[in-house]
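Deviations from the work plan: none for this task. Representative record:
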Amino acid sequence: MAQFPTVGVIGAGQLARMMIAPSIALGVNLKVFAQAQDDSAALNADFVLGNYSRADEVLAFAKNCDVVTFEHELIPQSVIAELEKNGIVVRPRGSSFIFSQNKAELRKKLSEHNLPSPAWQLRSQPLELDFPLIAKSISGGYDGRGVWVIHNEGELKELGESDFLLEEKLNFTSEIAVMVARSPHGQIATWPATETVQSEGICIKTVTPAPSLTHEQHGLAQKLAIEIADVVGLVGVMAVEMFLVDGSFVINELAMRPHNSGHWTIEGSTTSQFEQHLRAVLDLPLGDTAMRAPFAVMGNILGGEKTDMYRPYLHLFARTPHLKIHQYRKTVKPGRKVGHVTAIGNNLDSLHEEVQHAVDYMNGAIDE
Amino acid sequence: MAQFPTVGVIGAGQLARMMIAPSIALGVNLKVFAQAQDDSAALNADFVLGNYSRADEVLAFAKNCDVVTFEHELIPQSVIAELEKNGIVVRPRGSSFIFSQNKAELRKKLSEHNLPSPAWQLRSQPLELDFPLIAKSISGGYDGRGVWVIHNEGELKELGESDFLLEEKLNFTSEIAVMVARSPHGQIATWPATETVQSEGICIKTVTPAPSLTHEQHGLAQKLAIEIADVVGLVGVMAVEMFLVDGSFVINELAMRPHNSGHWTIEGSTTSQFEQHLRAVLDLPLGDTAMRAPFAVMGNILGGEKTDMYRPYLHLFARTPHLKIHQYRKTVKPGRKVGHVTAIGNNLDSLHEEVQHAVDYMNGAIDE
């Protein structure tokens, strides 16, 4: 290994983009495996263009890296296996990453370890769940895609022939995410639990620490995330998404990479999820996850009518001098995440107002 | 101007390097005018190689930028004039930047406005100052280079034929720097005053807020920095370096760009000097300069015996999980600034110990 190692990231969206800043600070080389030269991260990092489904292309990229990691779940297990067979250091390993890619494998693993899932079954099995139920694509779903509420046999049939994961429909009081980091030799760190606010299946806002949790629940949520990190053999950071149901946690899904629910850590924590991911996959000691202020509110900028994402700075930065923005430099399309804003401080009501104003102004929902 | 503007930086050292992270967050394009492809900033930003003394080369670079700014003082005034004549937006303007480049011009300007300088004269004028006195190169000196203590006529003669600035030798109690930002339409922001600790003319450590200042002196130092920013027509950020002499401030020099004494702002303030510089030269509203913790201590990593700047992370990050490091990716040479570390928090004694340990361990002065 040369003095400063090279981390290769499969994928070049905003998650890889936000790894660039900590990679520069640490002096670590970052290379991204992109699909297009205008991918978010390819605009600002060394990149190789290729198809993540082709083992030869990914392997050629990986051979120039000391460690390879992911920013999305789309790379096939067969490609990861090929990398590992060729001696590439892949973190997390394919045998761990499967739980981020395949919802059925995750449910089996959690059930084996008596970790809390909703009642679940595969669609291919005789139906035991009551309607209404939730049907999920076993792989590939995100941001509300690949998830359906099913009210009756007819709707179930409409899903088509392929297999699905079926789950009981929970009446949850809130959605919680805990970011957790684990290094190869097993050091683990978590951040305070985050409450995620969704609209039409897309996360629009996060609040940290999660206001709906008691102090005790907060500890339990973190404990659960740590247990799961160990059970799945996590290396890197991972979002553990949970539902709070009658005061107890039920695991929704995992994302074994930096995640939208951890964006607040860039400003809100001593160590961001992006720096922590680099530390973990490089087997460096993990950084302090303490918050820099009592509260952090993050709002996603979703594409709306407005297409100029720069000019709004003139108003927003004058109105809220402590607001921090992160642009992904993606073409604005309706509903697409094109950036986010974060505000941290002591007064949660003010932070909510500032973040809501900013995202509404950025996407054109309000004029001032 | 395209949706996201392009900022061109003349120079590609660590100061330009540390502008990259905020440029990515803001979505702003950053281009650096480098001397070599392994310059600190050229390793991670779009760059053009060229000679900053050649107007044609700088102009060709500048024509692809919406605004051009500086990270060092070496570009000749004649080149800046050529840029301005060709309609390039240069910030700060050459007529302002001269006060960062030419110590005699600065002294004249400060004296005109009754701003506190030591007693001074040019060497070409009849000697009025008493020995010992300070002789300074009028331009080009930094990090202790270009400054001499002169005890007698003989030593003065040894300096040679070129002109020098001569100044009274002050008995100061501390060295203070105030970072100040100013935008083209005159919005100004300052950060808390910083105390700089020097060894052999090189800054080795900074402490913010400056511990040797009373609350009232703190306000006076900031007021002085604001006055000077207006007087010189600053656009961007500037370090105002001052001596504290018998409880009063005397201006030492200006650096009209991000500066070592402001590195603590990356972690220690809501808005870093690097983000603020981009905001100012783009005429965006300035960001909040509040501190994120009561104290911030920054230590420069000076090259020593150790040449591997990565392996020390294994010990340092385990010892001090909240320590933040910034690598410049420069070849280690004795005494050369190759990076810095920052620690912020409530306990100033701990921060001093942690930063001192880190810089000593990084450069090999101690083993653990």
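Residues 40 and 84 of chain A are 27 Å apart (CA to CA).
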